[in-house]
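G., before I forget:
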Amino acid sequence: MMNFLSFVTNGISLGSIYAIIALGYTMVYGIAKMLNFAHGDVIMVGGYISLLTATMAGFPPWLAIIAAMVGCTVLGITIERVAYRPLRNAASPLAVLITAIGVSFLLQNVALLLFGANARAYPAMVNMPNVRMGGLTITGITIITVVTCIIIMVVLTLFIKKSKSGQAMLAVSEDKGAAQLMGINVNKTIALTFAIGSGLAALAGVLLATAYPTLTPYTGAMPGIKAFVAAVFGGIGSIPGALLGGVLLGIIEILATAYISSQLADAIVFGVLIVVLVVKPTGLLGKKIQEKV
Amino acid sequence: MAMLEIKDLEVYYGMIHAIKGISFVVNEGEVIALIGANGAGKTTILHTITGLLTPKQGEVLFEDTDITKVPAHKIVSMGMAHIPEGRRVFSHLSVYENLKLGAFTRKDHREFQDTLIKTYQRFPRLEERRNQLAGTLSGGEQQMLAMGRALMSHPKIIVMDEPSMGLSPLLVSEVFKIIQEVSAGGTTILLVEQNAKKALTVSDRAYVLETGKIVLSGGAEELLHDAAIKKAYLGEV
């Protein structure tokens, strides 16, 4: 029983990281209507920025984390501006999808060139003592990850519901043309979405590398794909969906690893996705409002 | 005084020559109707005026400023609102949030509140349903919302694209009554309609479009009694 609870806790922790990454996928999909497959690699870049600023420049952890977030925000805006925006009105939506995959490889290979293929040890960015509840030990990083995830969800939801930029995002996500007629700058709104998603990806990178303390140029790829699955699982375009999808995916993955097979864990994760999509094609919280004409 | 002036407009959709050299003027305080059949280019003209499309040639002057290349999102704060065809309300947002987006470019909260109260007075139904998702409103209510949303930007001129489309005759009359009220309040209106008869009854002047060209223009009253118009657009023999 204790084992089970500890697996679930680990699952929630890993799932919270997926959820934070999934937010980037889901927001960009909701607003720019594209799948940014380079999103996972932004996580890796965030990992390296925090690692290098902490070890080589001697930044304290909080400053290294901020440096990673700033760096990734700039990177996200640049990718959108240079690679995606020129293709926004391309005849086929595949153009931007292929470009995103290209950007993903570009980031991986530039990282390979700069940092080499060897895994680097990642220092503990956040130190918090473990907490014991009865027989269950919850690690400090688990607590920090889950709390961070909850704070992000709450702040982001409030931002979208209450702020003018958030309302602009909702308007753009539903109808770009009508949004423009309201005076909303669609390009700026999409850039903001990329900025937020990439900043969060940096944070996820730090949390991920702290929980699994190595870093390679491919660190972001698999979590990126899984977070994408989480976003689809929860209902792509939905923020609570990203949270639910991420956490469920994390729990399923850890339980499958523990009780079934660590080799099969990923296959099970993707299998669950297929089942969910067959039963509910919009994902768990995806909605389809019946519109009157 | 000319509030809006269109000069020698030429617009292409890819290879298709949609607008073939159109010029017209909307004076301050007027209600101008653009009438014509489907595919005549009415919507294209409106999209070009509000910056959703860029013309190949020609100019759009708004209060003597050249706005031909001004992007759509900058037009609203200059004082021009566009009610698009098919209403295009934000169906996942509430009525109130839609109205708030209509005032997106306005900074002053007091002015916003004043306009909101006025809009609710003009459309009591919108106030009743202010927390309801716009997608759940009836077609007529959505049209009211689209009009209310445009008024929230406190425009000098409103361009309206087929406001009567898909509405019951009763609602059509209500929409045109509101157009007259808005006009009486001092707002200039450029109206695109397939319902030529109704459009001509509320407008001062009108331009008749056929496949990208203006084929006829004049006072609304006189066009309403023009034999050719009657035959082609009013369904009378």
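The interface with chain A takes residues 50-52, 71-77, 81-82, 84, 88-93, 97, 100-102, 104-105, 133, 135-139, 142, 149, 153, 166 of chain B (CB under 8 Å). The beta strands of chain B are 2-13, 16-27, 31-36, 57-62, 65-66, 80-83, 157-161, 188-193, 205-210, 213-219.

More on Monday.
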